[in-house]
């Protein structure tokens, strides 16, 4: 743990894949959750995204994403 900067080691990057037609819905959904994470599209054609979150909020965000009406495949 980094003792100089609190929470410096808390960042988590999650690679995921969704149907490409659902990327915008995923972005809006996570954006609506506000404090849980940020979605960046890494490959629009393949439906690949990168979700920036923290180790503290990831469990709650993962649970919400698993309840989505489309499949979210976590790659890491």
Question: Radius of gyration over alpha carbons?
Answer: 13 Å
**CATH fold call:** Alpha-Beta Plaits
SSE string:
EHEEHE
Strands, count: 4
Beta-strand proportion = 25-35%
Q: Could you say which structural class the secondary elements and strand pairing correspond to? A: alpha+beta
Principal-axes shape call:
globular
Instruction: Using the coordinates above, name the CATH class.
Output: Alpha Beta
- Helix segment count? 2
Q: Biggest β-sheet: count, sense, barrel?
A: 4 strands, antiparallel
The percent of residues in helical segments reads 25-40%
Cα-to-Cα separation, first versus last residue: 22 Å
Strand order of the largest sheet: 2-3-1-4
Look at the structure and give the mean pLDDT.
90
Low-confidence stretches are none
Number of domains: 1
CATH architecture: 2-Layer Sandwich
Short description:
The chain has 76 residues and is of the alpha+beta class. It has helices at 23-33, 58-66, and strands at 11-17, 38-43, 48-54, 73-74. The protein has a 4-stranded antiparallel β-sheet with strand order 2-3-1-4, covered by helices on one side.
Keywords, please?
76 residues, alpha+beta, Alpha-Beta Plaits, 2 helices, 4 strands, 26% helix, 29% strand, globular
Give a description of the structure.
The protein has a single domain (7-75), classed as Alpha-Beta Plaits, CATH 3.30.70. Helices cover 26% and strands 29% of the residues. It is built from two helices and four strands. It has helices at residues 23-33, 58-66; strands at residues 11-17, 38-43, 48-54, 73-74. A four-stranded antiparallel beta sheet has the order 2-3-1-4, covered by helices on one side. A hairpin with a 4-residue loop joins strand 2 (38-43) and strand 3. It is globular and about 45 Å long. The model has no long low-confidence stretch (mean pLDDT 90). This is DUF4911 domain-containing protein.
